[in-house]
Known about the structure:
By secondary structure, the chain is an alpha/beta fold. The chain folds into two domains: 4-122 and 250-317, 3-Layer(bba) Sandwich (FAD/NAD(P)-binding domain); 125-246, 3-Layer(bba) Sandwich (FAD/NAD(P)-binding domain). Helices cover 23% and strands 29% of the residues. It is built from seven helices and 19 strands. It has helices spanning 16-27, 62-75, 129-133, 143-146, 162-171, 191-198, 297-317, and strands spanning 4-12, 33-35, 49-50, 60-61, 79-81, 85-89, 100-104, 109-117, 121-123, 139-140, 154-158, 177-181, 203-206, 209-217, 222-230, 235-240, 243-246, 250-252, 283-285. The strands form five sheets. Strands 1, 2, 5, 6, 7, 8 and 19 form a seven-stranded mixed sheet that branches. The protein has a five-stranded parallel sheet with strand order 10-17-11-12-13, with helices on one face. Helix 1 packs parallel to helix 7. The structure holds flavin-adenine dinucleotide and NADP nicotinamide-adenine-dinucleotide phosphate. Flavin-adenine dinucleotide binds next to helix 1 and helix 7.
Amino acid sequence: MTETFLTDILILGAGPAGYTAAIYAARANLKPILVTGLQPGGQLTITNEIENFPGFANPVQGPWLMEQMAEQAKNVGTVIHYDLITQCNLSTPKKDDPYFTFHADSGNIYKARSAIIATGAQARWLGLEAETRLQGFGVSACATCDGFFYRGKKVAVIGGGNSAVEEALYLTHHADHVTLIHRRDSLKAEKIQQDRLFNNPKISILWNSVVEDILADGNPPVVTGLALRDVVKNESYQIAVDGVFVAIGHTPNTKIFNDQIELDNEGYIITTPGTTKTSVPGIYAAGDVQDKHYRQAITAAGTGCMAALEAERFLASST
Ligand code: FAD
Ligand code: NAP
């Protein structure tokens, strides 16, 4: 049997942004409902050690950290629903019906006076079988998260945009050598970033090259190299590396908000600078769904906190 739930505040997403928003909203007595989506815990559930989330002297496991956040949100009064929002109506609520409407996969309907969108983003991958198998074993999409593990080693970065260049430059602080691999003969990244890349003695570039396979040895596996193809010469070749960082862009989870809320040309939710306000009053966005620059658990949690405080003020001013 399907149900309709009424709430002051609905939180979409169970990553660091969603859980932090829930903790703050629950502690403000707003009795939030949080809908988890298909990945309760969010992106950190697919990684192992987290070393950069403050509060832990030693590395913690991603899934464990997210279980703790879920428990904390529940303990202060958040109601968690394991469901997926598939459709929404964010047209400005009317006086006689002050609710935004959200439809879930289960058939349930949520009517909320305000909502926090914290549906995250997903790294784009090349689509190789080895890439999935070796994630956490030498293949990563986040240099800030995993670069530290490659001190004194050789790594490769795939991509030619700002992210790839930024990842490559960042990795030079840890790795001995960084090879940037790009499928064309020119970069998409900003010129100033390109200059930094070209002038860095620890970085070399392989142009016109695509990754055909990621090579690994052992059990548990350890990445040993890349099988590449030069698309101009149509020649296959291999290089030895200890780690591979895929940086070919991210896709924010905003499909269901198309035509409902203002998104930028890459699909990220646009927020008023310095706030989590979206183009619809009463709807807030936190975490990776509105952030293409930092994409960290702590920044997601920080904006989750901001969103809950802003929603609380909105609710107080509209009653
Ligand atoms: P996410 O964690 O992406 O969570 C999104 C949530 O939204 C999920 O629960 C999902 O199920 C839900 N959702 C999606 N669509 C819907 C919908 N339609 N309805 C309801 N719910 C929905 N950061 C660090 O700070 N340190 C690290 O060491 C680190 N390591 C990482 C390792 C890996 C492999 C990856 C991929 C990322 C890593 N990050 C790390 C980045 C960090 O995970 C993200 O920045 C952070 O998780 C973003 O949090 P978020 O809450 O915005 O979104
Ligand atoms: P992006 O600009 O879309 O660049 C993606 C890169 O990956 C492109 O070079 C693309 O190649 C390559 N690529 C895509 N699919 C590929 C595939 N299947 N195989 C091999 N290569 C592939 O993504 P981004 O670098 O993540 O940047 C996203 C946005 O965030 C941009 O607007 C960027 O400016 C912004 N950003 C800004 C900063 C900053 O200002 N400091 C930092 C990071 C990101 P082609 O070039 O051939 O298309």
